[in-house]
C-alpha cells in the first residue's frame, strides 16, 4: 500500500519566478534581438573579446547609445547623463538590419567608390560625446554593442562652441560581416518608438526645445 500512496502524491508546486527589476523597462539583450539581421538569429553571435580591458575615456555615440535614458539603464546611473553634441570625420554610417553601423570612409570597396556611392575622408557623422570613467562601465558598453562592434580610437569634434573644441576618444566601429550592412539612415526617434520607448522620445524633444531657448 505505501507504493500506491506514493503514486497518488502530487509533486510540489514549482518555485515562484524571481521578481522583475522595475528599474529596467527593456533589457539591452532584448533590444538587440528585436531587430537584428536574420543571420544573427540563425548563427551564434560573434563573441566579445575580453582579452583586453575596454578603454575608458570619452566615447562618441552615433546610434542607440545617443539616447541618454538608454545609456543610464545600461550603466545603472542614478540619473540621465549629460551629453555634448559632437561629430566625427572620416566615417560613414550605414545600417546593419535596423541598427547603425559605422565604417571607415576609406574601407568601402573600390567598386563602390568608383560608382560614386562611397564617401570620402571628409564625410561627417553627427552624434554625442560622453566620458566613461570606469572599466566596468566601458565593459557594459562593449557587451551591449556585441562582438560585431569594436571600440576604436577617433578624434571627437564638439559642436557646442565650448572648450575643448576637440579631443581624442573612442567610437564603436562595425567589425561584423560587411555583406550584412547596407545603405540607409538611422532615425533614433523612430527606433525608440519601435522599441516602446515613447517617453524617451518626449524627453529628447523637451531637451531640444530647451536648447533652442523655447518656442516663444
From TrEMBL:
<protein>
    <recommendedName>
        <fullName>Gamma-glutamylcyclotransferase AIG2-like domain-containing protein</fullName>
    </recommendedName>
</protein>
<dbReference type="Pfam" id="PF06094">
    <property type="entry name" value="GGACT"/>
</dbReference>
<dbReference type="InterPro" id="IPR036568">
    <property type="entry name" value="GGCT-like_sf"/>
</dbReference>
<feature type="region of interest" description="Disordered">
    <location>
        <begin position="1"/>
        <end position="49"/>
    </location>
</feature>
<dbReference type="InterPro" id="IPR009288">
    <property type="entry name" value="AIG2-like_dom"/>
</dbReference>
<feature type="compositionally biased region" description="Polar residues">
    <location>
        <begin position="22"/>
        <end position="42"/>
    </location>
</feature>
<feature type="domain" description="Gamma-glutamylcyclotransferase AIG2-like">
    <location>
        <begin position="59"/>
        <end position="185"/>
    </location>
</feature>
<dbReference type="InterPro" id="IPR045038">
    <property type="entry name" value="AIG2-like"/>
</dbReference>
<comment type="similarity">
    <text>Belongs to the gamma-glutamylcyclotransferase family.</text>
</comment>
<feature type="compositionally biased region" description="Pro residues">
    <location>
        <begin position="10"/>
        <end position="21"/>
    </location>
</feature>
